[in-house]
Every structure is written in C-alpha cells, then in structure tokens.
Amino acid sequence: MGKEYIKHIGATGGYLVAPSFEASFEEGWFDPDFWGDLADPVSKGGRGAAWFIHAAAGDLLLRHFCRGGLPGRFLRRDYVYTRVSQVRSFVEFRLLRKLYSQGLPVPEPIAAGYQRHGSVFYHASILMRRIPDATPLSDHAGFSDLGVWQDAGACIRRFHDAGVYHADLNCMNILVSDQIYLIDFDRGRIISGGKGGDWKKANINRLKRSVEKLLGHLDASLREQLWESLLSGYRR
C-alpha cells in the first residue's frame, strides 16, 4: 500500500498533499492570487473564501477556513494554534482521505495547509477536486425533485451507518451531481460505535432547520413533501 499523503512541516507552517499531486504541487496553490484568472470565487455557500480553480490537473476547489457569525467579524481567518495534529485543515483532510478511500461520496482531497501568524494564530486552507456540475440540494425544490430528496436521505444514512458525524449538515453542504455528495467536513469526525446515539437525531434536526430557513418561501405542503421524501430515503 502506498502512502496516504505526503507531509511537510516547517517553522511557520506546513502542508499535506495527496501522493498523486506531490510532483506538481506548490504551496502557492493555497493562494487564489497564485492562480490569477484561473480562480473564480464561489458565489453560493463560500462565505467569500472559496474559489473554483481551473488547473492543468483538472478543476479544483480551494477553501480558506473562516469563522461565521459574530466571531467572524473579529477573527475571520485566525484560529488558535495548539499543535500540528489539531490544525483544522489537516483534521478535515485526513477525515476526507479516509472517507474517500472507503467509497463514500465526498470530494477527493488534494492538499491541506496552514501558516502561522505570530505565536498564537494560524490560517488554514484545503484543496479538493471539484465535483462536476454540482448544485446544492436547495436548488432542487419542486414536486419533480422528490426523488432527489429521497436519494439525499439515503446518502445521509450511509454516512450515519458508517459513524460519520457532519458538524454542519445543511442544504448547501449536500450537493447533487451524478450522485448525492456531502461536503465541508470541518469539525466532522467518526464516532466510535456510531450505530446509535442522539448525534444522528441532532444531525437530522440541524438539517431540518436549514430546510425551513432556505426554503421558507415555498408552499408549506411542498416543503413538507420534500422533507418527508428525505426521511423516507433515510429510513430506507
């Protein structure tokens, strides 16, 4: 078995990179300015900190780790550094590598990096292969999309049965392409003995709040049918 990833750590930062990209990878890949016109900002769900990259190796997605809500107004990209193993981009990269190797529908992780800022803070970034022609689940909100929502429920069940906890399960992190994918596993983890537990119900309840927020403009009966279709797929 080959290496899972290549690791390089220096005094002020470091990166992990997939072996298949080791020869061509540069740390500049984590900077959208490096790519120039080949980088397009993500308009939906990117918090202004994600870009589609049209690279020679194929279409990629670059994401800078950023805080949302009130903390994001003051410490948008700053995270407290404790140790290398806890760098958020590294944690997500390692989780994605494991899920991807198990055949679960997640983006292929390409590289993860961080840069120290002073003695306390760091900035983190992650690169992954872009899922082609993907659209968020919230874009599929008509009566003709009930089957898509059922497939989304079945997809979530696959992850739950594998003990995978998604910390921010919402409509924007469920993508529809050739199949259903889950994305953005920041703070995600695999829960030991994950066949049961309240965390699954909490995950589903979080998603329902997202549905009510993003699809609140829909007729209540349609929104309910979409949600029931998702639950039907989950139970199936």
From TrEMBL:
Protein's pathway: Bacterial outer membrane biogenesis; LPS core biosynthesis
Active-site feature positions: 168
EC nos: 2.7.1.166
Database matches in InterPro entries: KDO_kinase, Kinase-like_dom_sf
Keyword terms of this UniProt record: ATP-binding, Cell inner membrane, Cell membrane, Kinase, Lipopolysaccharide biosynthesis, Membrane, Nucleotide-binding, Transferase
Enzyme class: transferase
Reaction catalysed by this enzyme: an alpha-Kdo-(2->6)-lipid IVA + ATP = a 4-O-phospho-alpha-Kdo-(2->6)-lipid IVA + ADP + H(+)
Any one GO molecular function term: kinase activity
Record has DNA-binding as a keyword: no
Stored SUPFAM superfamilies: Protein kinase-like (PK-like)
Membrane topology reported for the UniProt record: Peripheral membrane protein
UniProt keyword annotation of Metal-binding present: no
Subcellular location field: Cell inner membrane
Main subcellular location of this protein, as a coarse class: membrane
Cited function: Catalyzes the ATP-dependent phosphorylation of the 3-deoxy-D-manno-octulosonic acid (Kdo) residue in Kdo-lipid IV(A) at the 4-OH position.
Family, similarity comment: Belongs to the protein kinase superfamily. KdkA/RfaP family.
Protein name: 3-deoxy-D-manno-octulosonic acid kinase
Organism: Marinobacter suaedae
Top-level taxonomy: Bacteria, Pseudomonadati, Pseudomonadota, Gammaproteobacteria, Pseudomonadales
Name of the gene: kdkA
